[in-house]
Amino acid sequence: MRVHSVGLTVVGRGHGVFCGCEDWRQRGIVCKHIAAVALHELGAQAHARSTRSMVGLLLQL
Q1: C-alpha to C-alpha distance for 31 and 22, rounded to whole angstroms
Q2: Which end of the chain is more exposed for a tag (fewer CB within 10 A), N or C?
Q3: Segment 34-59, tens digit of pLDDT
Q4: Cα–chain-centroid distance for residue 11?
Q5: What does the alpha-carbon distance between residue 39 and residue 3 come to, in Å, rounded to a whole number?
Q6: Sequence-separated (6 or more) residues with CB below 8 Å from residue 34
Q7: Is 35:42 a contact under the CB 8 Å cutoff?
Q8: What is the pTM of this model?
Q9: CA-CA distance, 3 to 10, in Å (whole number)?
């Protein structure tokens, strides 16, 4: 089993990604590891937005 270090940073409209696998280091192409982290972050942001909107609806009742 291989373990890869993956990082994703978002500052304003900019972003930075890195991965320890060969696809990213040698070829410079986005790998499945980066894609998995990005999908996880998008899901977490959507969940946070959903939770905030539900709290707002409950406060209006």
Answers
A1: 9
A2: N
A3: 888 888 888 888 888 887 766 665 55
A4: 13
A5: 19
A6: 6, 8, 17, 19, 24
A7: no
A8: 0.55
A9: 23
